Structure formats: structure tokens, C-alpha cells
């Protein structure tokens, strides 16, 4: 029982990271109707940026993550600006463009940091907490807390601010939003920047939990994408639930099936999608294709 509970806590911490990645996918999709296939690579760039500023520049870990968020936010703005002329004209070319950006970001990461990758020391040196015989890593609790705060702030931004309301209006009907004076291009740019910022936060947090390398974005991107689909693509609550479910399933499968864990996880995911193709919360966005 203790082993199961420890596995559960580890799964929740990874689930929090997957939820952040899934929310990044969802916020772009719900605003533009576009799947940003470069998102996993942006997560990887965020992990590298945060670890570099933390280890090489000796910045405090929270400051390093904030700087990484700014860097990837700018990358998100650049991607949106390059794709903007294609908005409403060639949707397929926009998808191909995001794939191209992902390839470019991976090549840049290898050029700047090399292909070998590196480990990131935990910024929390406190000993694991002992709760009724269950050893809980202090850093895991930090990851869960930071992801929770980021989720609450995102929800408040979307529901309580004019810019958040404008983004939701664009998601529902871009033509009507334009008619009432909302700048659709700016809303799309903001969606890309926020999505990239969430990617950097996820990458920065997962750095001390995994090995930072140019290929890590592929695994995190696929799992975050799957979590978004499982929860209901375009739904922020769905991204949270999907991320948590995927993290817990991943952790339990790793303990029970070891080398076959990812096979088991994606088999369960495939069955779940066949049972409910629209995900737990269903489709929440307008299809722009």
C-alpha cells in the first residue's frame, strides 16, 4: 500500500507537468483551431533555457524559470507572426509550418547545447517528507504546487480579464469578434505566447525530474498531446484531468510493467479514445479547418 501511494504521488507530480503541456496545446487550439506540433520542442527549449540560467548563470531556480518563460514566449510570438499570413487561407500549410518550427528548434538546441544533454540538480535540498511511512519528495510537492498556481492564474486570466474574454470570443467566432473590434491577430499571438510560456514552465519543472536532452520534447509533447485529447482537446479542465490521469497511469504502469509501461499506457489511451472519441469533456472549440 505504501509503495502504491508513493507511486501515486510521483504520478501526480508528472501529471502536473503533462497537464501544463496539455494546457499549452489546448489554449492555442481553442483560440485558433490549430494544433501546434512545435509545442513539444518548445517544452524542450524551456527546459534547456531554465537549466542553463539556473546552472550556468547561477540564477535562483524560480528566476531561471521566469526568464525561460520570457524566452519561449518570444518564440511563440515569432511562430504566430510567421504563420499569421496563412490564417484562414491554408490551414494544412500552417500545420506543416508548426512541424517545421519544431524541427528547427531541435536543430538549434543541438547547435547551442550539444546532443548529449545533461542532468539538472534539484533546487530543493530538503529531505523527503515522511508521512505515515510514505516518503514524499519535497520537489514533487513543489511541482504540484507551482502547476496548481499556474492553472489558477490561467483560469482567472481567461475568465476575469478583458484580454482573456477577447481570446474566448475569438475561439467561439473570429468573424463576430472582428466585427466588435477585437484584434484577432493579437489574440492569436497571445495564445501562442501563453502556450509557449506554459511549455517553458513544464520544461523547467521537469528538468530536475528527467534528463534534459534535445529529444525530450518528443516524449513530453506526445504525452501532453495525448492528455489533451483524453481530456477533450481545447478544454482547459480537460487538459488538467487528462494530464493527471496520464501521469498516474504512466507511473503505475512503470512500476508494474517496467519496460512495457509506455506500451500499456498508450494501449489504455487508445481504448479510452475509441470509447469516447471527443474526450472526457468533449469538443469545446470551433473547427477552423
Structural overview:
This protein has eleven helices and four strands; from the N terminus they run ααααβββααααβααα. By secondary structure, the protein is mainly alpha-helical. Strands 1-4 form a two-stranded antiparallel sheet. A hairpin with a 2-residue loop joins strand 2 and strand 3 (134-136). The longest helix is centred in the first third of the chain and has 31 residues, at 2-32. The chain is globular and about 60 Å long. Mean pLDDT is 88; it is low at 284-289.
- Strand order of the main beta sheet, please? 1-4
Give the radius of gyration: 19 Å
Low-confidence stretches: 284-289
Element-level helix/strand string: HHHHEEEHHHHEHHH
Describe this protein with a few key phrases.
289 residues, mainly alpha, two-stranded antiparallel ribbon, 73% helix, globular, disordered C terminus
Task: Give the helix/strand layout.
Elements: H1 2-32, H2 39-55, H3 61-83, H4 91-113, E1 118-119, E2 129-131, E3 134-136, H5 138-160, H6 162-172, H7 174-179, H8 184-206, E4 211-212, H9 216-231, H10 236-257, H11 261-275
Antiparallel strand pairs: 1-4, 2-3
Helix pairs in contact: 1-5, 1-6, 1-8, 1-9, 1-10, 2-3, 2-4, 2-8, 2-9, 3-8, 5-6, 6-8, 9-10, 10-11
Amino acid at each position: 500500500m505504501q509503495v502504491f501511494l508513493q507511486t501515486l504521488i510521483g504520478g501526480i507530480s508528472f501529471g502536473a507537468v503533462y497537464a501544463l503541456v496539455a494546457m499549452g496545446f489546448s489554449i492555442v487550439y481553442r483560440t485558433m483551431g490549430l494544433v501546434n506540433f512545435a509545442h513539444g520542442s518548445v517544452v524542450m527549449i524551456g527546459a534547456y533555457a531554465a537549466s542553463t540560467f539556473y546552472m550556468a548563470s547561477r540564477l535562483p531556480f524560480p528566476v531561471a524559470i521566469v526568464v525561460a518563460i520570457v524566452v519561449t514566449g518570444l518564440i511563440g510570438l515569432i511562430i504566430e507572426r510567421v504563420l499569421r499570413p496563412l490564417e484562414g487561407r491554408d490551414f494544412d500549410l500552417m500545420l506543416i509550418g508548426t512541424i517545421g518550427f519544431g524541427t528547427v528548434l531541435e536543430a538549434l538546441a543541438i547547435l547551442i547545447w550539444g546532443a548529449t544533454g545533461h542532468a539538472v540538480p534539484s533546487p530543493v535540498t530538503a529531505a523527503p517528507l515522511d508521512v505515515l511511512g510514505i516518503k514524499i519528495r519535497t520537489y514533487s510537492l513543489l511541482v504540484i504546487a507551482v502547476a496548481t498556481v499556474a492553472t489558477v492564474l490561467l483560469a482567472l486570466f481567461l475568465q476575469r480579464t478583458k484580454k482573456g474574454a477577447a481570446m474566448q470570443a475569438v475561439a467561439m467566432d473570429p468573424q463576430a469578434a472582428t466585427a466588435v473590434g477585437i484584434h484577432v491577430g493579437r489574440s492569436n499571438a497571445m495564445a501562442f505566447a501563453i502556450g509557449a510560456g506554459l511549455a517553458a514552465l513544464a520544461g523547467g519543472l521537469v528538468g530536475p525530474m528527467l534528463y534534459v536532452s534535445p529529444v525530450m520534447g518528443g516524449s513530453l509533447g506526445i504525452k501532453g498531446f495525448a492528455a489533451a485529447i483524453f481530456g477533450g482537446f481545447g478544454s482547459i479542465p480537460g487538459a488538467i484531468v487528462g494530464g493527471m490521469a496520464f501521469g498516474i497511469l504512466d507511473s503505475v504502469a512503470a512500476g508494474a510493467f517496467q519496460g512495457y509501461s509506455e506500451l500499456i499506457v498508450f494501449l489504455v489511451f487508445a481504448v479510452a479514445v475509441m470509447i469516447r472519441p471527443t474526450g472526457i469533456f468533449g469538443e469545446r472549440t470551433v473547427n477552423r479547418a
